[in-house]
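so the lab meeting is tmrw and i was supposed to have these ready like two days ago... anyway. pasting both below. for each one the top line is the aa sequence and the line under it is the structure tokens. i havent really looked at them closely yet so no promises
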Amino acid sequence: MSVEGKKIGFALCGSFCTFAKVMPEAKALVDAGAHVYPIMSEIAFSTDTRFGKAADFKKYLEDITGNEIISSIKAAEPIGPKGYLDALVVAPCTGNTLAKIANGVTDSAVSMAAKANLRNDRPLIIAVSTNDGLSANAKNIGMLLPKKNVYFVPFGQDDCVNKPDSLVADMTKILPAVETALEGKQIQPVLYAK
């Protein structure tokens, strides 16, 4: 299903090393005709790192989407009762946020947006990026894979020699993963090998 005319939330968590790969995918959704609503965790919204300045990422997202960033629980909460998103992408989704979503914890803008969107039986698309995906967070991925309305961007090990527990999504697959999720299907294959 095309994303044209669809209202898509695009939420970023603090896996800062993947921001450069994720930002073009937000633009790809806009270029495909989606109305994109940017959301950032409080940490992603306010933290400068060696990967870039928070202000630069915020400006880029607001410029390409034409929408103000949602960056607080209070601002994310209306996603539920107003039901204005057709789908929500969490990219990158850190292990911390993955665990929150899997266990119903809503203590950040992103976890609140996820809960609010699932409340409306709308697709939640997760683009995982975590160093403990095959260790501490494996159980959370396992809990979310069969969950209704939760879909994954294809993921795999990004450095099996130096970081054997680390998993990262193929961020270039965000758009097709969203299109497939809007049809109620999981994009295949879920797992990829480099």
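ok protien two:
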Amino acid sequence: MNAEAAALIRALGLAPHPEGGWYRETWRAEATFETGRGLRAAGTSIYYLLADGAVSRLHTLASDEVWHHHRGDPVSVHLFGIDGYREARLGDATESQPAWQAVAPTGTAFGAEVAVPGGWALLGCTVAPGFSFVDFAWADLEALRRLHPARAEVIARLG
């Protein structure tokens, strides 16, 4: 593993994430409200690190998620929404296309990968209403393949 990525995992106290990579929750709002799916924090945030070919596997949330690029190589966030497919490239916003953040809207199937082979990236993910595993579901890969046959390779990598 890249030495800087390994040092960040130790320094930030990151643990393996069920969808891939490393994470630690850094904020959970004290304010809560009823969502219709139960009581949720107004928002949550995590550090999230991808390295050594780890990917964020395709999943959906019942909340919006904002991805923030903090450090490292560019990241491709692959979004499969009701409007079709799009790739959000996170990285140095002074480059031609990358941005510092991207949004995965509620109900969008999405996943991410470092855009540089062997690269790494430290990200942040903010969810509102706040994250709960009750609101998390793995993406239906077969349905994605049927709806987006041109993206079969991406679906296979992140599935």
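from a quick look at the 2nd one: The chain has a mean pLDDT of 94. The chain has one domain: 3-158. will dig more after coffe
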